[in-house]
Design goal:
alpha/beta; 17 strands; 46% helix; disordered C terminus; binds adenosine-5'-triphosphate; binds magnesium ion
């Protein structure tokens, strides 16, 4: 037994109540961060169940990541609607596919591809495309993009003219690889992630029995974070609805941060014309953050397409965002560690703080500095830096073959060894996996440069190995380290955004206006995670000598107390 229907409504503001009461027909909430979209839909479902309008097993709540689905489930449980299904698109599709396969196709449903990378590599070999591992990962991304967009190979080839092809390839070669990859998968009777969505879609569209069964089961649909829907997911939702329109979607176009993977806020913004008898609700009060944070978020997004102004609900003043300029990455990481220990000394819990960054490799210096300062942390939705395969391999190289005990400077020797692992002094061309791998190795260079003078190679690598070995237990009360991408939907009292320099945020390979806009939305997502304070850090120099940086253009949106990082944190 959860709250009563009246209690559920009482926990909402008038606009949210209107959403909760509109239990039938199409409803969309278009609203900015922290306005209570997720709260509104979970209460709406619970209200529908409490009033008897919904039978819990007829409702399907959808979202995009396992973590978000888990979050929806626990919120629903707390509201007395724990038996309602909250799933990712993928898990809902997978369940249907396994259930209907024996009857429609025969036998058991194919298994999921276990090592997709290997199948892609095999396909590349088959078509005589000899590229290295990072390029293979970029090819895998391309394979995924085509399927998410539901393009045939011919359509893909036509569209590829406007896309950046992975290094050493051409649209024609990529298409050859795609064809071979699909064939290999068929031969092995395996499906990949996108096949699951496509095959379920095909089944619902072409098998009337399946369609009627699924539509009997699910009558009311709710989708959170709808700005992230891809064409294939949208098509699947339409197929499940099958001409009905009891669907409620919520989202914020300013938080579209997966366009590179095929997501489009177009479906959210076009909801009104797609479902003409629907109601579109806007929420403006931001319940999450202070006036100061809301002001910064509004300033950042003003004039951008799809941006909606937020009005801070809280009138209690909070601190202005703080920008801390640091000397180099190591100094920045130490500054972050000190910012956190200061917050905790002031009464905050470790778990009240999140440190956000643009790319995973940025966590290396942070993990190192937090480890040294005794700050407990966990890495959200990712592998800890020192557990990443390329990092482990590099450490292995540094400890083996290649390193002679000379009295060369540590950095120079590390540089030489890292070249064995694929590091180059200048960043490689291109984006995606190639770049990520390089950045991970570059991060090790950074740690070497920050090591105290006179550190031997052996001491240095021992330190890296020790770090990989410690902190394996998940900490209950710990600082969260997360990429900006994986912070979506979450909130913390204190948020630290690191690396706010040109080249990191916006990231260097974001060159077109559209790409820079996506970077801006990422910064918006980061800022709006904060309930109380935002600290933004950047460093004037990377770790490699010579590379000087300028502050991120997005900092112009902050009405800040600007300070020198080292000075502000008392160094
Ligand atoms: P995001 O866009 O970041 O996903 P959201 O719009 O989904 O944000 P929620 O996470 O639902 O926002 O709500 C943000 C915070 O505000 C939560 O802590 C929530 O409990 C609180 N909140 C939302 N609506 C209300 C309300 N009517 N009264 C009190 N608190 C509220
Ligand atoms: Mg939300």
């Amino acid at each position: 037994a959860g709250p009563s229907a009246e209690e559920l409504l009482a926990a909402l503001d008038p606009e949210q109540q209107a959403v909760a009461r509109t239990l039938l027909g199409p409803v969309a909430i278009l609203a900015g961060a922290g306005t209570g979209k997720t709260r509104a839909i979970t209460h709406r479902i619970a209200y529908g169940v409490a009033t008897g309008t919904y039978s819990p097993n007829h409702v399907l709540a959808l979202t995009f990541t396992t973590r978000a689905a888990g979050e929806l489930r626990s919120r629903l449980r707390a509201l007395g609607a724990g038996t309602v299904q909250a799933r990712t698109f993928h898990s809902a599709a997978m369940a249907q596919l396994s259930y209907f396969w024996p009857d429609t196709v025969g036998g058991h449903a194919p298994r999921l591809v276990d090592k997709k990378g290997r199948v892609i590599a095999h396909a590349a070999d088959t078509v005589g495309l000899h590229v290295d591992t990072p390029v293979l990962r970029d090819l895998a991304a391309e394979v995924e993009w085509r399927k998410v967009q539901m393009l045939t190979l011919e359509e893909y080839e036509a569209a590829a003219a406007d896309r950046t092809m992975p290094r050493d390839t051409s649209p024609r070669r990529v298409v050859d690889l795609m064809r071979s990859y699909e064939q290999l998968k068929d031969d092995r009777r395996q499906l990949d992630f996108e096949d699951v969505l496509l095959a379920t879609l095909g089944m619902v569209e072409s098998e009337p029995r399946v369609a009627s069964y699924v539509r009997q089961q699910y009558r009311f649909f709710v989708v959170d974070e709808y700005q992230d829907v891809s064409p294939v997911q949208h098509a699947l939702l339409r197929a499940w609805l099958g001409g009905r329109d009891d669907v409620c979607v919520v989202g914020d176009a300013s938080q579209t941060i997966y366009s590179f993977a095929g997501a489009s806020s177009g479906f959210l913004l076009g909801f009104g014309s797609e479902f003409p008898r629907g109601s579109v609700v806007r929420l403006e009060r931001n319940y999450r953050s202070t006036r100061e944070v809301v002001h910064a978020a509004n300033t950042l997004m003003r004039g951008r397409p799809g941006a909606l102004d937020l009005v801070a609900q809280s009138t209690a003043p909070g601190p202005e965002p703080t920008v801390l300029a640091c000397v180099h990455d190591g100094d920045e990481a130490q500054t972050v560690a000190r910012t956190i220990t200061d917050l905790v000394a002031g009464g905050s819990a470790w778990g009240d703080v999140a440190v956000l960054f643009r790319v995973g490799a940025q966590s290396a210096a942070l993990e190192s500095a937090l480890g040294r300062a005794g700050v407990p942390y966990r890495v959200q939705g990712g592998t800890r830096f020192f557990d990443r395969p390329e990092v482990k391999l590099a450490v292995h190289h540094m400890r083996g073959e290649a390193v002679r005990q000379t009295d060369d400077e540590l950095t120079r020797r590390v540089g030489l060894v890292l070249q064995v692992s694929g590091w180059t002094p200048t960043p490689p061309e291109g984006t995606g996996a190639v770049r990520e791998q390089w950045e991970a190795l570059q991060a090790i260079m950074g740690l070497a440069e920050d090591a105290p003078a006179g550190t031997t190679m052996q001491q240095f690598t021992q330190d890296l190995v020790d770090r990989a070995a410690t902190h394996h237990e998940p900490e209950l009360d710990a600082v969260t380290l997360a990429t900006l991408h994986s912070s979506k939907g979450l909130e913390w009292p204190h948020v630290v955004i690191t690396g706010a320099a040109e080249g990191l945020l916006p990231i260097s390979h974001a060159t077109t206006d559209a790409e820079v806009d996506e970077e801006r939305r990422l910064f918006y997502v980061g800022l709006t995670r904060a309930r109380r304070s935002v600290t933004v850090t950047w460093s004037r120099q990377g770790s490699v000598r010579g590379g000087t940086r300028t502050p991120s253009r997005f900092l112009a949106a902050l009405d800040t107390r600007s300070a020198d990082g080292a000075a502000a944190s008392g160094a």
